C-alpha cells in the first residue's frame, strides 16, 4: 500500500468535523487536518462562483481511497464533492508506518 494525502473541500466547519471524525474513527484515515478560511473560485453550471470553504487534508493509504470516497459522498452536502488523492513521495519512516498502522494496513 502506498501512503496518500486526500484533499476534501467542505462548505462548513460542522460538515468538516463530521467527515473528519467518521474517517478517523472508522480507521479510514490516520489523521485529518481541518483548514478553515479557504476561498474557492470555480466554474459550476455555467457560472463562475466564489465561496468560502474549509479544506480537509486526510493522511491514509491508497487501499482506503474507495472507502474515503464512499464516506464523503454519503455525508457531504455538495452534489459533486472534491475528493482528490495525491501520492506521498517521501516522509519520515516512523510517521508513514503510523499512517499504515492507524488505517489497519500492516507494515
Could you explain how this protein is built, in words?
- This protein has one domain (3-102): 2-Layer Sandwich (Alpha-Beta Plaits).
- It is 32% helix and 39% strand.
- It contains three helices and four strands; from the N terminus they run βαββαβα.
- The model has no long low-confidence stretch (mean pLDDT 95).
- The termini are close together.
- It has 107 residues and is an alpha+beta fold.
Keywords:
4-stranded antiparallel sheet; alpha+beta; Alpha-Beta Plaits; 32% helix; 4 strands; 107 residues
Work out the radius of gyration.
14 Å
Measured between the Cα atoms of the first and last residue, the distance is: 9 Å
Taking strands numbered 1, 2, ... along the chain, how are they ordered across the largest sheet? Answer: 2-3-1-4
The overall strand count is: 4
CATH topology tier name: Alpha-Beta Plaits
Oligomer: single chain
- The portion of residues forming beta strands comes to 35-45%
As residue ranges, the low-confidence spans are: none
Number of helices: 3
Structural class: alpha+beta
Report the CATH architecture. 2-Layer Sandwich
Biggest beta-sheet profile: 4 strands, antiparallel
Instruction: Summarize the helix and strand pattern as letters.
Output: EHEEHEH
Structural domain tally: 1
Q: What is the helical fraction, as a range of percent?
A: 25-40%
Instruction: Name the average pLDDT.
Output: 95
